[in-house]
Write a structure and sequence with these properties.
Number of strands: 12
Number of helices: 11
Distance between the termini: 74 Å
Helix content: 25-40%
Largest sheet: 8 strands, parallel
Order of helices and strands: HHEHEHEHEHEEHEHEHEEEHEH
Strand content: 15-25%
Radius of gyration: 32 Å
């Protein structure tokens, strides 16, 4: 903070003595303007305040400019026309809720589901049969009507496979959860997979979250599950996190938050080589505009295709639900944008890929608009 000075430069404001009054000052020349007095009480900004302001501005620019650049790039990525023939290959899938196996659904519901799926390319159903216990076990009491549902689907929808959708929260997502680093827990997950195959399921669909990129214990679990499913002539499929939209973004996100959203492209490829099907959860992206969301799905599709071997079936997830929150803006994350984005990514990267499809999530939250956009954009 500044201080007040007298006109002659001395600090203080005491009255002058008699001697100083007796000494006359210089007489100003006629017509000359008096010298202006310095501003009294003016505050000067300290250097550290200026430095702090500049630092804040630089940091804001470092954050805002890349974000604007990314959004612009995604918008550009959504431009253009998908290639001819980039429609359903008859290899799509759909996630189903738990009501199909816990006793709430009846024969009439399966008939209605069959009518809805009959003219689509959906050939795999991932029906929620868990969740797993944190020790990897699966109580039979949580899926008492599983056998009924499998038989009903085979009757109403010949050729459609039913896979057991098993999942749990991982311990790295909080104080409780399934611990992949524990060999005994992984062994129990494999036994639970064998249990659902004994029930009649034709595959195991695994969804463990939040799963950090590079988790070697997860890869070990997939190796063990793959041996089991091959012995049983069954499918092994997984729900996959999104791939880094920028190089090493999962590392940056992991530094800032405990639950990084993305996998590295390398890790995605390691997972894809260990399974029969890999379904990208390409929703909940926090994109604000339909065009940037569609561009994001196009980018994710290309990134996934680049590292998924042609012998592995790649599926891109569709948001068959409506929410509006910072992680998922319903006006932006539309089925129409996701379908068009997936077609653009497919067109640019591997338009002739046969083992490719889309996977709506999830049946009980789907709207007529979701179904219409899926059918008009993809099912032809």
């Amino acid at each position: 903070m500044g201080h007040t000075e007298s006109r002659d430069g001395t600090a203080g404001s005491d009255e002058p003595t008699d001697d100083t009054r007796a000494t006359p000052g210089p007489t100003p020349e006629p017509g000359s303007a008096p010298e202006p007095a310095p501003e009294s009480g003016k505050k000067r900004r300290r250097p550290w305040v200026r430095r702090l302001g500049r630092t804040a501005l630089v940091l804001a620019l470092l954050l805002i400019v890349p974000l604007v650049a990314v959004e612009a790039a995604l918008r550009v990525n959504y431009m253009g026309d998908p290639a001819d023939g980039t429609f359903t290959r008859g290899r799509d899938a759909m996630w189903l809720g738990h009501a199909w196996v816990d006793g709430r659904k009846k024969d009439a519901d399966v008939t209605a589901l069959a009518g809805r799926l009959e003219d689509t390319g959906v050939r795999d159903l991932y029906v929620h049969t868990g969740p797993l216990e944190h020790d990897g076990t699966l109580p039979k009491s949580v899926h008492p009507r599983a056998r009924w549902f499998i038989d009903a689907v085979h009757r109403e929808l010949p050729g459609v496979r039913v896979q057991a959708f098993l999942g749990d929260v991982l311990a790295n997502g909080g104080p409780e959860g399934l611990e992949l680093s524990d060999a005994a827990t992984r062994a129990e997950v494999v036994r639970s997979a064998g249990q659902v195959l004994d029930t009649g399921y034709e595959g195991v669909h695994l969804d463990l979250e939040p799963l950090h990129s590079g988790d070697e214990h997860y890869l070990d679990l997939l190796d063990d599950l793959r041996r089991l499913t091959r012995e049983r002539d069954a499918q092994l499929s997984v729900a996959a996190h999104q791939i880094d939209p920028l190089p090493h973004l999962h590392s940056v996100a992991g530094f800032v938050a405990d639950h990084p959203k993305w996998w590295s492209q390398e890790f995605f490829g390691q997972v894809a080589r260990r399974v029969d099907q890999i379904a990208v959860m390409s929703y909940d992206t926090a994109r604000l505009f339909e065009s940037t969301y569609g561009g994001y799905v196009a980018q994710q599709t290309s990134l996934a295709l680049e590292v998924t071997p042609p012998t592995t079936h790649l599926l891109m997830g569709l948001p068959f639900y409506y929410e509006s929150n910072p992680g998922h803006w319903g006006h932006a994350e539309t089925v129409a944008a996701a379908v068009r984005g997936a077609r653009l990514g497919l067109s640019r990267t591997d338009p002739d890929r046969e083992l490719f499809g889309l996977a709506p999530y999830i049946d009980f939250a789907a709207t007529e608009t979701n179904w219409k956009e899926f059918e008009e954009g993809w099912v032809r």
